[in-house]
Design goal:
The protein is α/β, with parallel strands linked by helices. 41% of the residues lie in helices and 15% in strands.
Length: 258
């Protein structure tokens, strides 16, 4: 499996605090079946700006080599879509996912759906491809908005742990509106790689091929800078689940009975 969204570099952002915590997280990821991790530290202008990122990543890679822990660490950022981020993207201050054309981004609190789409359009116009992080978090995102994102070729990512709390995600997966499941791991206590039960549930509900697509195949395409393809049945997106004929029949039957 490939994790394109985690915060395991020690001391870079609000993720792992120490080298040992990073090692524990990486060992947990390896045990779960991960082979590659994109170290997507936050990029938030004025707060997190990749200070010492390259050295920390290099040191962590060296530590894994010394301990004979066979897992690949790849670079990346999770970009906070504030007013200054477009300038930083244009100046190439941010890190794409494994040096691909893909950028992992997240909306700022209070951002509207219209504003988000405008930001995504600007980033795409700059020649990048977009992965929208943890789409399940935003109140304005529903299956219709996800379909709008898909038509923009935006890649949609969900945090695995969220499937425990937001069952609507299962419907989104069934409609092929979700491209990637990631850990968004931050620490060993709360936001970690204790995800085995959820991954088993995903396989039980959707089958092994869907599990592979969400956890391995599509993330691998991202780090190889390839397109993610997948058909969506638009009729199902707008299906309300109401049988109109039956509804009309029941309506007139009720009138006649009065």
């Amino acid at each position: 499996m490939v994790d394109i969204h985690c915060h395991i570099l020690p001391g870079i952002d609000d993720g792992s605090r120490t080298l040992e915590e990073s090692i524990e997280l990486i060992l947990s990821a390896k045990k779960l079946g991960y082979k590659k991790l994109c170290c997507t530290s936050h990029y938030k202008v004025g707060i997190y700006e990749n200070k010492n990122y390259d050295n920390v990543l290099k040191n962590l890679r060296n530590e894994l080599k010394e301990r004979d822990i066979k897992i690949k660490l790849l670079e990346g950022n999770e970009l906070f879509l504030d007013l200054d981020i477009l300038k930083k993207i244009k100046e190439k201050k941010v890190k794409t996912l494994n040096k691909s054309d893909y950028l992992l981004v997240e909306p700022i609190p209070g951002m509207t759906s219209m504003a988000l789409k405008k930001y995504l359009e600007r980033i795409i116009e700059m020649g990048y491809r977009v992965v929208l992080a943890h789409v399940e978090r935003y109140s304005f995102i529903d299956k219709k908005f996800l379909w709008e994102l898909k038509k923009m070729n935006v890649v949609t990512q969900v945090n695995i742990r969220s499937l425990k709390y937001k069952k609507e995600i299962y419907n989104w997966i069934d409609l092929n509106l979700i491209d990637i499941l990631s850990s968004d791991a931050h620490n060993k206590k709360y936001r970690n790689y204790d995800l085995e039960e959820i991954i088993i549930e995903i396989e039980n509900k959707f089958g092994v091929e869907t599990k592979k697509r969400l956890l391995r195949d599509n993330p691998q395409k991202i780090i190889e800078n390839k397109d993610i393809k997948g058909g969506v049945d638009e009729k199902k997106i707008y299906d309300t689940g109401i049988n109109n004929d039956n509804f009309i029949q029941r309506f007139f039957k009720r009138i006649k009975s009065r």
